[in-house]
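Page 42, continued from yesterday. The earlier attempt failed because a stray header line got pasted into the input along with the sequence. Redoing it now with the clean sequence only.
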Amino acid sequence: MTEPRFDLLFQIKIELSSAIELGATPYGRLRRVDTFVEGRFEGPKLSGTLVAGGNDLRLTRFDGAFHPDVRALLRTDDGHHVQMIYEGIRSGPEEVWDRIERGEDVDPSEYYFRIVARFETGSEKYGWLNRILAFGSGVRLQGGPVYDIYQVL
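This time it went through. Structure tokens are written below.
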């Protein structure tokens, strides 16, 4: 078997609107819906903007970990649309999340934040995205999350 390799696709920065909290649900201790206001992605494989209106149906699990569940629409600089779907895990000490929720920028070495992503597009130029898996390493900043997104080769 060959060992997987990784190739940087882009870095994406997402700005969030104010969240709507649904409260405790059967699935976790807090369901929160964040809507994307805007964003930008830049990289060697594609660059463009995040179309406003995507969202994260974030769940705080009973064990304290966050589970992002995201649908985002990307518009490349050359006018193509790509849907990005991802979920992941963000975990770490409770005091770290308190600092993040207060708007502090926390060193990403203090917590775990990884995602797995898929893409969907009707674009012929970017059709190769329909046939790959990607992962991301994230950091949560004051304005929203930032991810480095890598293609799994």
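Notes: The beta strands are 6-16, 20-25, 28-42, 48-60, 66-67, 69-76, 81-91, 112-120, 134-141, 144-152.
Reminder to self: strip header lines before submitting.
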